Amino acid sequence: MSAAGTTRGTVGAVGTVGALSLRPLDPLKDAELLHSWLTHPKAAYWLMQNAKLQEVEREYMAIAASEHHHAYLGCHDGRPAFVMEKYDPRYIELVGLYEPEPGDVGMHFLVAPTDRPVHGFTRAVLTAVMDELFADPRTRRVVVEPDVTNTAVHALNEAVGFVPEREIDKPEKRALLSFCTRESFLNRRSQTTQGSQGARGATP
Asked: Is it true that domain 10-201 has CATH number 3.40.630.30?
């Protein structure tokens, strides 16, 4: 992953849904935008529905101050469209809940609510996020822990290569611990690319 404090250019999805890019999140300048996303009903699984603006600021200031947790604002064709967090599961979120392996990286992502959804956009965002995480050669496996009832994200995760392992109890939720190795992600990505090329080449 890019080091905190740097700006990433395009990270994926050019030619499909548009250009996606990442930059380090500014906990003060971006707080109002994040607050509008996190308190939206579609972000219920982030458990910040009733958060005040100052609480969002404090949350992301704490992340900015941590050496084990980083937040990034994602843009679609230059406009803010999603947020991504990466964390070290040895110190954040999953301490004592599983045995981390070398190269494990935890991840959260949220796509901004919209009244005009673009088909395939959320999967394109997740693919770009995974591309970015695996761009770091030290990353061998991505770890996620979504709420067990969030079936939509389970399906999305599995589509890009995540394999559910087991349910775990976190203080705030019961979660589905899932893993995606570099090999699994690249295999799924290759299959998706081949499928898309085949569909484009098919005779109507």
From this structure: yes
DSSP-assigned letter for residue 9: -
**pLDDT at position 204:** 47
In angstroms, rounded to a whole number, what is the distance separating the alpha carbons of residues 24 and 144? 21
| Three-state secondary structure string covering 124-182 | HHHHHHHHHHHCCCCCCEEEECCECCCHHHHHHHHHCCCEEEEEEECCCCEEEEEEEEH
Give the pLDDT confidence score for residue 76 in this predicted structure: 96
The pLDDT of residue 4 is 42
Q: Please name the residue ranges forming H helices in the chain.
A: 31-38, 53-65, 121-134, 151-159, 182-201
pLDDT of residue 203: 44
Extents of the domains making up the chain: 10-201
Task: Using alpha carbons, select from 111, 173, 184 the residue that is nearest to residue 143.
Answer: 184
pTM comes to 0.87
More confident residue, 1 or 193: 193
* Closest by Cα among 107, 112, 114, 151 to 131: 107
CA distances to 11, 31, 86, 131 from 126, rounded to whole Å, are 11, 22, 13, 9
How many angstroms separate the CA atoms of 126 and 142, rounded? 12
Do 111 and 121 form a contact (C-beta atoms < 8 A)? yes
Name, in order, each residue with C-beta under 8 angstroms of 138's C-beta and a sequence gap of 6 or more.
103
pLDDT(7) > 80: no
